[in-house]
């Protein structure tokens, strides 16, 4: 079973060890798609929005077919937002470089000195109790989203990716 909204953000391409961009495609662009997906089922009922005009505007946006009326209606929704808790919205960026720039700018805007943390990785055993070689460990680490070195400040808000932290208390929200 495959599920997802193929009108969402496109896959973000990775870069190989040599820095060359590796092509990334949507699942439905794969050569195997038609062999694997015999009967696609398209869900059409919208649950989060009740007003049909707004649903139609969102669908037009998803397919890149916004009319002038929809653009004006979306524009009329723009307003300054105040966050009483001081926590702003999560921001999404299309590339890791843009994420890094935004994170660095936010870190620089916070008071106090930053503390440098560097990961120390040592080979161990996999889930089948097989010894993991140093080379295998290095290849695995190259594919991780986590950075080798990070700088943090005491007041910095963090976003944890629970699927990377399943062994950690923080992933279970017990901190």
Automatic annotation (TrEMBL):
Q: Which branch of life, at top level?
A: Eukaryota
What is the official name of this protein in its record? DNA helicase
